[in-house]
Amino acid sequence: MSLIILDRDGVINHDSDDFIKTPAEWEPIEGSLEAIARLNYAGYRIVVITNQSGIARGLLDVETLNRIHSKMRRMLAQVGGKIEAILYCPHGPEDGCSCRKPHNGSFTDLAHRLRVNLDNVPAVGDSLRDIQAAIASNARPILVKTGKGERTLAEGLPDGVEVYEDLASVASALLEPSLP
Predict the structure, then answer these.
(1) φ/ψ (deg, to 5) at 33
(2) Of 9, 15, 126, 166, which residue is the catalytic one?
């Protein structure tokens, strides 16, 4: 069974500069839930690793975050998909924790929990910090243009980062590799 790591905001759901603070504000990007279901059906285990500094900023609490994630899981189940685990960093940028991307503490935690090696595991994000955490973990960094992706792309990426329109395009590329 294969593994894929996804960022949440800007990859699975629409992002907001004002943060996603309630279940009502969480809205999936068109095709993202179906992409996860396609990946599941092909044998991929889906794990979400997400920075959620809105908790440290007092914009939402853990209970509300859990309700947001429950909505995401319910909507995903309606299309036949599931997320195996969600790891989140509740800290703010100034807290200096190792679990907040661009650091790879959450990736390391995931590897220990699942007893897996993350070498070349696809890690999909929309920001440079997502890409940096993937690279630091020897994962396969993939940028999507949704969310902050276009802005991230315009600011420049490290060499070797794959770029796709959205999560649906990533799923297609992983599931239907081009013929030789």
Answers:
(1) -65, -40
(2) 9
